[in-house]
4Fe-4S dicluster domain-containing protein
Amino acid sequence: GQCRVVCPTGAISIHTNIDEVWEALADKNTKVIAQIAPAVRVAIGDNFGYAKGENVMGKLVGVLHRLGFDEVYDTSYGADLTVVEESKEFIERFTSGEKMPLFTSCCPAWVKYCENKYPEFVPNLSTCRSPQQMFGAVVREYYKDPEKNEGKKIVSVSIMPCTAKKEEILRPESYTNGKQDVDYVLTTTEIVRMIRKSGIVFDKVEIEAADVPFGIGSGSGVIFGVTGGVTEAVLRRLQQGHNRVDMESIKKSGVRGDDGIKVLTYNYNGREIKAAVVNGLANADKVLQQIKNHEAEYDFVEVMACRRGCIMGGGQPVNAGPRTRKARMKGLYDTDVNTQIKKSNENPMILSLYDTLLKGKEHELLHRNFSGK
Ligand code: SF4
């Protein structure tokens, strides 16, 4: 591609793959698969006259089908896989006391920051791949089946709120058997450009549901797009059952809200889990210093590089002031409220995957393969 997009946080410019995606869409010998990240659906409407924060997922799915995407899936599904794997990893570490606290690793800008500035904490990073990467690996595996790929080449495209996600797909640790899983990342603003160029009138398109089997995410998967979402999703997973009182107490634990650093405790089988929910790298720096200087002790630390999380990512429509940011947050939490399945491990499409495609392959497809580990 000739066009460049500029990353507002890193002051680096990144090539766009819009041209390659157009080519793949036009090629009859390809099957083009899209995954849409949670934060995209509450921000893309900004460009097409919708109320701030309105979830326009149904429209976006319809539009992508018209653009020629063969299957349109939901990254919330990948987020559900991340919750299941990361909760398991957390309990193992919490029980053994090794490599504590556990740091989330689904934000590539944070992972890079930790590697560069705090290499001593790299072992604390979760080995779980990010939702985008888990999704990418599962899609590749699924379409190996000739009945599924129909003899066509699979082109895997992610629609992300984030420019750092473009680099994440190139990291060999997240490859499966030495191969890159996701081919291209388009940011929200890039897909807006493609929609405009196509002449499709966004608000005139009929809404559609995401495709099966990877189009169904739980409410936990959806809230990944906002700071605190990963922690809330993991706590829900750790909670037995799903009665409303317990879900409500997690919601009220201090996990939500705008603050750059939130600290909360959660009772798990009589033991206290202390979590820090951090957004913004300056805040991450503060928390890492605290941990390093033994001024604070945590069991679980969620970090998102962008203030307020992915809803305010560098690939989202700009000029988002406080009202927009509140509306996007509300948009995701309302989506959770309206989703029947609240817990990742209760998503039936996730459960069936563990019994089929993932059997014996959890490590190969869902975890990073850091060399020497
Ligand atoms: Fe990307 Fe920002 Fe989300 Fe990190 S917090 S994954 S940098 S959008």
